[in-house]
């Protein structure tokens, strides 16, 4: 995980499409990778369990889903058309409406 990108994301400095891409990347790659790393480096040695190959990413995905993490894309369905921009308001008031 890129610490600078995470800091920019947390401070809401990323562009919306870049932020959405980064969030998808975290959810689909970083969270299972983090769970896998935690289990192999922290948990298994702490309970004196030796696992030959560790856990797979699909197992980490399955465990996260079982714990309530869903991999869905949230869509609000909002559309911003800029109807309140000053140049649009000026055009509407001074050109379009008088012509109608």
TrEMBL record:
It comes from the Eukaryota. This is Uncharacterized protein. It comes from Pleurotus ostreatus (strain PC15).
């Amino acid at each position: 995980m890129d610490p600078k990108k995470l800091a920019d994301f947390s401070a809401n400095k990323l562009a919306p499409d870049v932020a959405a891409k980064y969030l998808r990347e975290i959810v689909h790659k970083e969270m299972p990778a983090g769970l896998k790393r935690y289990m192999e480096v922290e948990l298994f040695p702490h309970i004196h369990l030796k696992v030959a190959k560790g856990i797979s990413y699909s197992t980490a995905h399955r465990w996260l889903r079982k714990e309530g993490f869903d991999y869905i894309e949230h869509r609000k369905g909002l559309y911003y058309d800029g109807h309140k921009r000053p140049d649009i308001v000026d055009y509407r008031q001074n050109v379009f409406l008088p012509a109608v």
